[in-house]
Amino acid sequence: MNSFSAKVQTVSIPYTQLKDKNADLSAKIEQGFGPNGLGILSISEVPGYSLWRQNLLQLGPRLANLPEDVKREIEDPKSRYNFGWSHGKEKLESGKLDLLKGSFYANPILDVPTTEQSLIERYPSYCGSNIWPHKALPELETAFKTLGKLILDVGLLLAYHCDRYASREMVMLEGEGLEQTLVHSRCHKGRLLYYFPAQHRQYITILFHI
To answer: Hey, which of 28, 104, 119, 125 has its CA 20 to 30 A from 188?
Structure first.
C-alpha cells in the first residue's frame, strides 16, 4: 500500500450531523471535496435507506426477467433509451453492444418534468416522461420513487453545508448556490442496473443523479 492510499480515505458524515444546520462540517467537506480529497463524501446511518435500497434491488431480477414484449412496451427510443427499460443499446469500447446489463431509468421526483415541447425535443434524455410497468411490476414505481426521494433529500442537506462552506470565500446571493439549484431542478434521474448472470453470478446496482 502506497502512502497516498494509506492516508486518503473516504470521508463519512453521520446523518444526525448532516441534518443539523448549525453544525460546522467545513473540515469534512474540504477533506472530501478539496484538492487533496477523493471527491467523495459518504453519509452514514440514514434512516430507512437500507430497507428501501433492498426493496428496490430485489425488483431488479423481476424486471429483467419480464417477457420481452412487456419490456419493449417500457422502452423509449425518443429519449435515446434514457427513460424506461434499456438493454443492448449501449456500446462497449470494442464497438460491440453491451448485452451483459439492463438498465431502468426514471425521474424519481416528477413523472412529467415539463410539457414544453421545445425542451423535450432539445433534451429528450432529461425532459422526457417516466414509463412504469404498472401492470407487470406495479411495486417498482413506489420503491424507485421512495429511495430516489430519500437520496435527494440527503443530497439537499449536503448541498446546504457545501453552500455554507463556499460562502466563506465568495458572496452568494439569495436563491443562488448548489442547494437552490437542486431544489428547483426538475430533471433528477435514477438508474437501476441489473447485470445478467455471468458464470452463475449476478449484480444489481442503483445510481441516482440528483
So the answer is: 28
